[in-house]
Amino acid sequence: MIRRVISRAHSNIALIKYWGKRSGEGNLPATPSISLGLRELTTETEIQKQTSGKDKIIINNTAASGESYKNLVRYLDYCRETGLISGPLRITSNNNFPTQAGLASSASGYAALATALSGFSEKKLSLTKLSHLARKGSGSAARSITGGLSAFPTGNNPAARLLLAPEKIPWGMVVVVVDSQSKAISSREGMEHSRLTSPYYKNWIKQADADYKSMLKAINTEDFTAIGELSEANALAMHCCMIASRPSLIYWNNTTVDIINSVKGWRKDGLEVYFTIDAGPNVILMGNKEDLAKIAQRAERVKGVTTVIPSIPGGQAEILLRE
Ligand code: PMV
Question: Ligand 1 pocket, 33 CB below 6 A?
Answer without folding.
Answer: yes
